[in-house]
Specification:
By secondary structure, this protein is of the alpha+beta class. Among the domains are: 112-309, Biosynthetic peptidoglycan transglycosylase-like (Penicillin binding protein transpeptidase fold, Orthogonal Bundle); 413-425 and 470-539 and 562-659, Beta-lactamase (3-Layer(aba) Sandwich), CATH 3.40.710.10; 679-765, no CATH class; 776-879, Immunoglobulin-like (Sandwich); 881-980, Immunoglobulins (Immunoglobulin-like), CATH 2.60.40.10. It has 24 helices and 38 strands. A 5-stranded mixed beta sheet has the order 4-3-7-15-16. α9 packs antiparallel against α10 (295-303). It is elongated, with a radius of gyration of 41 Å. The termini are far apart.
Length: 980
């Protein structure tokens, strides 16, 4: 530390050059600088006789100067009378600040407390490493040991200039020395007023007359706040590094020196650690420039690995709390946050937060096997913009996975989850969900030697598709075309209005924006979906409901607003209608899955970046919108194939199911699909033939095709949309020269190549001739209710409904209804379920069972029961007939029985079985002759079985049962069946 540094300047009196020289020393031994040259004598010129005009000006100036001095002296005298004695500082008499508390929306759950007492451990200057002292001086007051006065006149000049510019002490820059900062922290309030500034200067002079510079520095290092309720260098070292300040390294010293400037924003426990380390490097550079450290020490400090101690505070919803704390610090300042006793009521729903934390933790644990070690979730009320839940990582306190990093605020590429924003913008121009775009290989970069050919995730091309199918199926090529038609700058303008802050430069994203080429934040992305669900109206993101000071003075309070309209009502509703269309999504992704909520609609979209670095699922219901991101903090890729629907969607589904449990099912309002009169916008092509096609088989629909699987399609000659509309005014006249559009040639070329590769243009221009073979009687599931028996009298609060069910295709699910109201659903074996009666009255009721296969084929059976919970078991049910009778339980009406199901058990139920003699079971052969299947003579009250041993040849048959009672009377029951 023996390097000598030289300062060259001029004597302020004589303007003659002088030299200042000092040696950098250990701070504890630094002495005030001694001038090496005394200033020259200032000689006053001899006054000339006479009373010239210049002489009078000098006299006036002299009088004004004396008056100013007297006035300033008067100010200082008035303000100095009531100031405390600086000797009190030695006693440590400091007012204990009040704590700030952050609550959830109910005010019942305390999320976080900023301590009401200053957490401080004193340490002597001799025990503090020189690194700490140098870092503090280099950061806060570089001339601390060199300056003769207690104040920094240059700093005050900067503050005065700032005051003149802004007319506000609040916004003018500071000019405080270490001594002045000590005064502010120990004695005075933190308000910015002229009177307080004068008091500060007076006390600073008194302190420097009373204390040595080393004593002042010791007081300063023991008093100032470093954030997280750590006051003084010793406590901050214990809080952030878990060790005494005696053992701090140079790199750690620079970290702590950075904190007092912005204790909340730069907190090692917060999310702005990148900014903290930038500040640390700047301090180390300043120390090097000042000669406090050598270049070798500087290099070692830069490469030292910094590990912060785990946050000692108990924090509920920690990422949300830190997010709110930064907002409060920005609005009120760090000092008010740590001293003024604020009570903060947030928007957080405590119960939803716990559901979210569980969903993220369990989902992230599962995702470990998929190469994704982190996840985050944000939930918003779409009608208010209030944040209901925020989980920024799998575990805030998990240092192995950078748990304190808040992924909800991180900038990540959204993949296909950005497509709804593109299509919503497109709809504002007059396009509709029926508008046809071509999903064909297309080069979107017309420049020579350049190429941009996006692919669909499955590598397939589907030709002409409606926007509904393109968005629901997340097709990439139509999405890029939609972005071009809408305009990149127009989409970015809407994105800004939606609240995105990261999409500001069209040149950086281009057409790749449609596929998530621009980074977004999970919080802002979720808000954008909330706007769509809220009929296109944006409510500002809200995290704070109310801030009170001392439980009385309300500093701020959220008030409901009308919001800002971003999209038209119908544009937003058309997008939501597509995103909730499970049948449209099934064309690409299949039925069911984690994007479907049980018995309620949900508008949802997934997204995955091409390299599997980001997985997204965002969507919701009219009550709540949730966004989920999954991936790795270091941006490394997940396992290939584990994208949004596999890594993020299960977390989203788990949260939404828990959040919506026992809540009202609310349907989305339906949009009005515009009819423009332009065939391609309305879903047809010129001269097109319209036919109804089954979505599953792609063949002509039949009377057996369920309505929700029928889609009307057109078949005609193929051209790109430029052939029919002007993209800038799609509802206007068709373009005279469509080829003038820069994209026209490549879009047409893609269509032509697709037609050629498909093999035959006839196949493309003619409708299908074959009929739907997925929805045929032979594929209808076989279903029979085995128990309870018809007209059974039940005395309990529930009944186990036993069924016999098979399906030629894959059996998807079985649903149970009581009097038309849904009760249970079974998707896995065993398919039998218990139906609970709840509060329905006694009497006749109908249990309905419906079996669905994976193509939507369904079989439905009913059984009538008599609920008699108020009667004894011996009383007679009103449903039981007075005479004997027989009912065929299986096979059911119009049942299709495969030949390999034989021997087949025919199941019967007999009323008044004690009066029955026997039952014969027959079927009529193809000539109408009765063929005996079997006879039953031992007739019980439970369902009875008759084995049909040999299968007849394929065809339609009538099967019937004849009951003979003890009086010789006969009773008949029959069903039509098909043997396949």
């Amino acid at each position: 530390m023996g390097n000598r540094r030289q300062w060259t300047g001029k004597n302020i009196i004589t303007m003659a050059p002088i030299q200042r020289t000092w040696r950098t020393r250990k701070i504890g031994s630094l002495k005030p600088l001694q001038r090496l040259h005394a200033p020259r004598q200032f000689r006053v010129p001899h006054k000339r006789s006479g009373g010239s005009f210049p002489s009078r000006l000098v006299l006036l100036a002299l009088i004004g100067g004396i008056a100013s001095v007297v006035l300033i002296a008067g100010f200082f005298y008035v303000y100095s009378r009531d100031l405390p004695a600086v000797e009190e500082i030695r006693k440590g008499s400091i007012v204990i600040p009040e704590s700030t508390k952050i609550y959830d929306r109910s005010s019942e759950h305390l999320l976080y407390t900023i301590h009401g007492e200053e957490n401080r451990t004193r340490i002597s200057l001799a025990e503090i490493p020189d690194f700490v002292k140098w870092a503090t001086i280099a950061t806060e007051d570089q001339d601390f040991y060199r300056r003769d006065l207690a104040i920094d006149f240059k700093g005050i000049a900067r503050a005065i200039l700032g005051l003149l510019r802004t007319h506000s002490l609040e916004s003018s820059p500071g000019g405080s020395t270490i001594t002045q900062q000590l005064v502010k922290n120990l004695i005075l309030t933190r308000e910015k007023t002229l009177s307080r500034k004068i008091k500060e200067i007076i006390l600073s002079f008194r302190i420097e007359k009373t204390f040595t510079r080393d004593e002042i520095l010791e007081l300063y290092l023991n008093q100032i706040p470093y954030g997280s309720n750590a006051y003084g260098i010793e406590q901050s070292s214990q809080t952030f590094f878990g060790k005494s300040a005696k053992h701090l390294t140079l790199s750690q010293s620079a970290i702590l020196a950075a904190l007092p400037k912005a204790t909340t924003r730069l907190s090692p426990f917060g999310s702005q650690t990148d900014e903290l380390f930038d500040r640390q490097r700047a301090i180390l550079k300043q120390m090097l420039n000042e000669g406090y450290i050598s270049e070798d020490e500087w290099n070692r400090a830069l490469t030292e690995e910094i590990a912060f101690k785990k946050s000692p505070e108990r924090i509920e919803a920690p990422h949300f709390v830190m997010y709110v704390r930064e907002i409060l610090a920005h609005r009120y300042g760090d000092s008010a946050l740590e001293h003024d006793g604020l009570n903060v009521i947030t928007t957080l729903d405590y119960d939803l937060q716990k559901i979210a934390e569980k969903a993220v933790a369990e989902g992230a644990k599962t995702n470990d096997q998929k190469g994704a070690d982190n996840a985050g979730l944000v939930a918003i009320d779409p009608k208010t913009g209030q944040i209901l839940a925020m989980v920024g990582s799998r575990d805030y306190f998990d240092t192995d996975h950078e748990g304190n990093f808040n992924v909800a605020l991180a900038n990540r590429q959204p993949g296909s989850s950005f497509k709804p924003i593109v299509y919503a913008t497109l709809f504002t121009k007059g396009y509709t969900p029926d508008t046809i775009l071509y999903d064909v290989e297309t080069d979107f970069d017309p420049r020579e030697g350049a190429e941009y050919k996006p692919q669909n995730y499955d590598g397939k091309f589907r030709g002409p598709v409606k926007i509904r199918a393109a968005l629901a199926g997340s097709l990439n090529i139509p999405a890029v075309k939609a972005l071009y038609l809408a305009g990149v700058e127009t989409v970015l303008d809407y994105a800004a209005r939606l609240g995105y802050t990261t999409l500001t430069d069209p040149g950086k994203v281009g057409l790749s924006l449609a596929l998530g080429g621009g980074g977004v934040k999970l919080l802002e992305h979720t808000l954008a979906f909330a706007v769509l669900i809220n009929d296109g109206v944006r409510e500002e993101t809200v995290s704070i409901m109310r801030v009170e000071k001392n439980n009385a003075n309300v500093l701020e309070e959220w008030e409901e607003s009308d919001g800002e309209r971003v999209f038209s009502i119908n544009s937003a509703r058309m997008v939501i209608d597509i995103l909730q269309d499970n049948s449209a999504r099934a064309q690409v992704f299949g039925e069911g899955g984690p994007l479907v909520l049980k018995n309620r609609p949900a508008a949802v979209k997934t997204g995955t970046t091409n390299d599997y670095r980001d997985a997204w699922t965002i969507g919701g219901t009219p009550q709540i919108v949730a966004g989920v991101w999954a991936g790795n903090n270091d941006n490394s890729p997940m396992n290939k194939g584990d994208g949004g629907s596999r890594a993020a969607a299960p977390i989203w589904n788990a949260f939404m199911q828990g959040a919506l449990k026992n809540t009202e099912v609310i349907q989305f309002p339906k949009p009005e699909i515009p009819v423009t009169g332009k065939p391609i916008l309305d879903g047809t092509l010129d001269g097109a033939i319209k036919v109804k096609v089954d979505k599953v088989s792609g063949k002509l629909a039949t009377e057996y095709t369920p309505a929700e699987y029928i889609e009307e399609q057109s078949f005609a000659e193929f051209h790109s949309i430029f052939h029919y509309i002007d993209k800038s005014a799609p509802l206007g006249p068709a373009p005279v020269q469509p080829s003038l559009d820069p994209q026209y040639s490549e879009w047409e070329k893609g269509i032509t190549l697709w037609v050629e590769k498909s093999g035959s243009s006839d196949k493309l221009t003619k409708p299908p001739t074959e009929y739907d073979d997925a929805h045929v009687p032979a594929n209808i599931p076989y279903l029979a209710i085995l128990s309870p028996a018809p007209r059974a009298e039940l005395h309990e609060d529930s009944v186990l409904v036993e069924i016999d069910v098979t399906a030629k295709r894959h059996l998807a699910k079985v649903e149970y209804e009581l009097d038309g109201q849904f009760r249970e659903s079974a998707g896995l074996l065993p398919y039998s379920r218990r139906v609970y009666f709840g509060s329905i009255p006694d009497g006749a009721h109908i249990i309905t069972v419906t079996a669905f296969d994976d193509a939507g084929n369904r079989a439905k059976q009913e059984v009538e029961i008599a609920l008699s919970r108020g009667k004894s078991a011996g009383e007679t049910s009103p449903l039981i007939p007075a005479t004997p009778g027989v009912t065929i339980l299986a096979p059911t009406k119009d049942a299709v029985i495969a030949r390999d199901q034989f021997p087949f058990t025919v199941r019967l139920f007999v009323d008044k079985s004690e009066l029955a003699e026997l039952v014969n079971v027959y079927y009529n052969d193809k000539n109408g002759n009765p063929m005996l299947i079997g006879t039953v003579t031992s007739i019980a009250e439970e369902p009875i079985g008759v084995s049909w041993k040999t299968s007849p040849s394929p065809g339609s048959y009538t099967m019937y049962a004849i009951l003979i009672d003890k009086n010789g009377e006969s009773y008949r029951s029959e069903v039509k069946i098909i043997v396949n």
